[in-house]
Structures are given as structure tokens and as C-alpha cells.
Amino acid sequence: MKYVIISDIHGNIEALNTVIPIIEGEKPDRIICLGDIVGYGASPSDCLKKIREIADIVVAGNHDFAVCGNTSIEYFNPIAKDAVLWTRKNISQEEIDYLRNLPLTHSENNILFVHSVPSEPQSWEYISTLGDAIEEFSFFTEKICFIGHSHQPAIFYEDRMKRHGIYINERLELREDYRYIINVGSIGQPRDGDPRAAFGILEIDKGNFIFQLKRVPYNIGKAQEKILKNGLPEFLAMRLAMGK
Ligand code: ZN
Questions:
Q1: Nearest residue to 114 (alpha-carbon basis) of 101, 99, 128, 124
Q2: Phi-psi region of 130 (alpha: psi -120 to 50; beta: other; left: phi over 0)
Q3: 25: CA distance to ligand 1 center in Å?
Q4: From 11, 66, 138, 195, which residue has the greatest number of CB atoms within 10 Å?
Q5: What is the 187 CA–ligand 1 centroid distance (Å)?
Q6: pTM for the whole structure
Q7: For the residues 234-238, what does the mean pLDDT come to?
């Protein structure tokens, strides 16, 4: 059984279109999207179409819910707010309805999928540090919880004695007696200093779990050009090249 887990596309069709053939080459059984299909980037509608085509399951991100009005944009910073308002005007009513009806979590095969946190998915809290992760382990029962949201790949673990740690590995064989919270990074706006698109692959073979983080370079210049041409905030173009 092979899963591909993608997150935080953020309207970046250049990144998504570059990654899709690589995902398809992996021949996954299931493709799961952890949300934030839209917001920030200049191609929200194109990204929605693609994700709806390829993903078996999609859970909602805060930008998805902000654009359709499920989540208030009051707490969004001015740049994110501008991008939400622009996105609203640049997708169809049918697409807004699609976003509105996305679930907040999905669970299958002892794996939980959620955009932000298992404790309260719609609080849109972040798991950035090991301390954040430790608290969250008690809010799900599955072996693995996949998350996005911070755009920073990381693997947090809890052993049977409730001891915790973090890996920033590109490949990890998961232990049978450990539980994990795994952030798969972002396709369309990485923030870990590496501007390449990121996504995760989980292979389950006879009870063995192997996780891999993939990085894929794409045409950042083209995505930046579109952002500027559409009058979106300049910083949104700049940050793509910095991976910040
Ligand atoms: Zn995001």
C-alpha cells in the first residue's frame, strides 16, 4: 500500500504541475491532500481542478475555509487577507461550494489526516515545535497523524514510554511501537529555507512503514511572474524563491 500525501498547494500551478508526473510515477494507491489548495498563489482555479482530479481525499485548510467564508479572515495578516479576497473573486461559485463542504479530518488504515492539529482542527493552531507536538499526541489514537499548515517538514514521534523526539529526515523507517506526527511540507510555498516543492510518500509493506519526503525543483520565476501580473502582494512572489 502506497500513499502520497500533499499539502499547501496555495494556488501555485507551476509547482503542482511539475510534481504531478512524479507522483504518478510513484503509482500510489491513494493520494491524500491536506488542504490549502488556494490562497497566496495566482492559479487557484487551476489548482482546484487538478487536485479534484488526482486526490482521493481532501481535507480543508484554513485558506480554503477562509476563501469560502467558513473561517473568519479577521486573524489573517494583511497579505494573507489580500490573497483570500483576490482568490474569492478568481474562483467559481461551484468551487467555493466545493471548499465549503470539505471535511476537517479523515482517518483510514490507522492514519489520521488533518491540516493543522488533531486536538481542534478548526482552531488552525500550529505544530511547529516538539512541545506543540507532545500535547497533540493525546488527541488522536491512530499510529500516524499527517499534517501540513506550517509548510515545514518534520517527523515527531512518541514511544511507548511517552518519550518524544523529532527527526528532519528525508527517509525514515517507522518503528512498530512508536506513534508519529508527520508534516509533509508544502507544494506551493515551502518555508523551511528550501524553495523546492515538498510532499510525502508512505509505504506500508507487511506491517513495515517507510516514510519519504520528496523535493522537486520547479519554475519559480513563472509562478512569481503570475503573482505580480495579477496584482497580488509582491512579498508572495519574493518568498517563493527564498523558501520562507
Ligand atoms: Zn498553508
A1: 124
A2: alpha
A3: 25
A4: 11
A5: 10
A6: 0.97
A7: 97
